[in-house]
Design goal:
325 residues, 2 strands, transmembrane
């Protein structure tokens, strides 16, 4: 009896096993995270309705925010031809935060919050892209523009909060630090709609983004409609980033770390990177948030602070690596 296995069947078996293992590990991590709280772990099946009302929204929020920021980061890196691009580093998260704080100061809530985050993120993304095309400066120019515009948005946020009443100041301060403890700040259905729209727009553009990473001239020679692709990808990134910021505040670096790690470890086209970035980014943020609220209990450390401590050294390492290459 021959031991020969057709390559197609072997590939199919490997794919089924890989996806099956990934789904099982994901389900296990979600189940474990649901049980984390009050300085200990308890089986989710033993939790009462009140705890489910607290932990379930937090777990879902962490998954959605991680997914949205990681996919957005993977697309922005291709769009700007820069591995250091991240929604927070190039100012789009800052623009979304400015939109939300402005809406809060005006006393508007509900769907106005994610809508304001989307508009703020979109305006800043277009501003950065337009200024970079006009001024040039390569990768460093893009980062400087992002930092400057992000700082400008931060200054406007501080000014609005300074002029606001205590209630707006108190509700916005915790949210701005980037925390899953604010889960429920925006109804999940609005964020879900925004993320679903963003993914539906961005995922079909994997091949075009691969072409853009080779440079605009090469992309045009491949028949890619560069202007149209850029406009749609920017709208999709604004939807994803706006939804994430409206749920959890400004959380940086995850959109830079996850796509770059997956690209270095496994490679592949931008479609593959975006898909796995969404999956691993969601789980990564869930695990970090669970560890942060368990290890530091009773203090609920904002996850934005934890990711900044991890992402800062990663950014320096990636920057040195990209300049040397």
């Amino acid at each position: 009896m021959s031991n020969f296995v057709h390559p197609d069947k072997r590939f199919l078996s490997t794919t089924v096993i890989s996806y099956g293992a990934a789904i099982l590990v994901s389900a296990l991590l979600i189940w474990l995270s649901l049980g984390v709280g009050f300085g200990q772990w308890s089986s989710p099946s033993q939790l009462d309705a009140t705890l489910w009302q607290l932990r379930y929204p937090r777990v879902v929020t962490a998954l959605l925010v991680g997914l949205a920021l990681s996919v957005s980061g993977a697309a922005l890196q291709a769009l700007f031809e820069n591995p250091l691009a991240d929604p927070s580093l190039i100012g789009t998260s800052g623009g979304a935060a400015l939109g939300v704080v402005l809406i809060l100061a005006l006393g508007i809530s509900g769907i106005g919050v994610p809508l304001a985050a989307f508009i703020g993120s979109l305006v800043v993304c277009l501003l950065v892209l337009g200024c970079h095309r006009f001024l040039g400066g390569g990768q460093m120019g893009l980062l400087i523009l992002g930092f400057v515009i992000s700082a400008f948005c931060g200054a406007l946020v501080s000014l609005i909060l300074f002029l606001s009443n205590d209630m707006v100041l108190r509700s916005a301060t915790n949210w701005l630090a980037g925390s899953m403890a604010e889960a429920g700040f925006v109804p999940l259905r609005y964020a879900l709609i925004s993320i679903a729209l963003g993914l539906a727009i961005i995922l079909p553009f994997g091949r075009q983004l691969d072409g853009l990473m080779l440079g605009e001239t090469t992309a045009l020679s491949l028949g890619i409609k560069v202007g149209q692709v850029r406009a749609l990808v920017i709208i999709a990134c604004a939807l994803l980033t706006g939804a994430a910021v409206s749920m959890s505040g400004v959380i940086g670096f995850i959109g830079m770390m996850i796509p770059n790690l997956l690209s270095l470890l496994f490679g592949g086209g931008r479609m593959r990177i975006m898909f796995w970035s969404g999956w691993f980014g969601a789980l990564f943020l869930l695990v970090i948030d669970s560890l942060a609220r368990h290890v530091a209990y009773p203090v609920d450390v904002p996850i934005g602070i934890v990711l900044a401590l991890i992402g800062g050294p990663f950014f320096i390492w990636l920057f040195i690596r990209s300049t040397r290459s």
